[in-house]
Amino acid sequence: MFVPEPIPHVRKPRVHREVVSFTRRGGRLTERLQKGWDDLSATHVLDIPRSTTSTSLDPEFRLDLAKAFGREAPTIMEIGSGRGESIVHAALENPDKNFLALEVYVPGVAQGLVTMRHLGATNVRFAVVDAAAALATMLPEASLEELRVWFPDPWHKKKHNKRRLISPDFAPLAARVIQPGGYWRLATDWQEYADHMHEVLSEAAGFDYSGTWAPRFEGRPVTRFESNGLEVGRDIRDLSARRLSE
Fold first, then answer.
1. What are the catalytic residues?
2. Taking residues 227-231, what's their average pLDDT?
3. Is the pLDDT reported for residue 204 higher than 80?
4. How many other CB atoms are found less than 10 A from the CB of residue 187?
């Protein structure tokens, strides 16, 4: 049975606490999700060497994408895959591509495994890891055809804005892993965060950005999360930037 990794004891006082863009949620796996995890995690969830916490990354670790997927193919990564709805849909629509999902909520990963088995997708791999660390060191440079971030936590309180994933500091990490001609795609249902994303893309070095909202990306299905936003009258904003050649 899956048991979440314990967080190692850290001697106090702590000199510095890294600001992360997510809140790690717990949650026990139901019998159905546990079976999905037991059956598929060994082959479809990456074994990530840790440094401190259960979502950290050993900075010396380098991911071999061809080995992870068992083939050479263009790779698309989604950060914050949730229950796997979008990435499994994309994998089914594009069997010739590899799809890497980063998600820190283990029950969500388990649900993604169950969904991909039910629908017959085989070209998805999951990683329970902090996305910023993964982009900084784990992934090879220029290894992604696309980087997708759908509806990241908006951290809408002003005092929490510093925890937003999409930030000026994140842009160079995205530029590092997206290959020339590849795309960085974003979507949010919070207008203030959309405006912030617009500012980040406008100033991001190494990207061609139109400066306007993008049409809704056809490759993204309408998930339950997006439907909830529409039901309360929020506008869905898509943004897209193309990686330039150096």
1. 153
2. 90
3. yes
4. 22
E strands, the chain, are: 75-79, 98-102, 124-127, 144-150, 178-188, 207-209, 237-243
Domains along the sequence of the chain with CATH: 31-243 (3.40.50.150)
Token pair recorded at residue 231: 């039901």
What is the residue type of 48? I
Nearest to 206 by CA among 142, 116, 137, 127: 142
Closest to 95 in 3D by CA, of 118, 113, 120, 117:
120
Q: What is the pLDDT of residue 130?
A: 94
């193309």: which residue's tokens?
Answer: 242
Residues 6+ apart with CB under 8 A from 54: 4, 5, 6, 7, 24, 128
∠ CA(73), CA(74), CA(79), 5° rounding? Answer: 125
Rounded distance between C-alpha atoms, residue 39 and residue 13, angstroms: 41
Q: Look over the chain and give the mean of its residue pLDDT values, rounded to a whole number.
A: 89
Q: What is the residue whose two structure tokens read 């999360």? A: 225
Q: Is the peptide bond before 6 cis (omega within 30 degrees of 0)?
A: no
pLDDT in tens, 3-36: 444 433 333 333 333 444 434 445 689 999 999 9
Percent of the chain beyond pLDDT 90? 80
The answer, yes or no, to whether residue 147 has pLDDT greater than 80, is: yes
- Cα 140–145–151 angle (5° rounding)? 100
Based on its alpha-carbon atoms, the radius of gyration of the chain, rounded to whole angstroms, reads 18
pTM beyond 0.70: yes
Report yes or no: 107 and 128 within 8 Å, Cβ to Cβ. no
d(CA 227, CA 222): 7
Read off the pLDDT of each residue in 101-122 and give the average, rounded to a whole number. 97
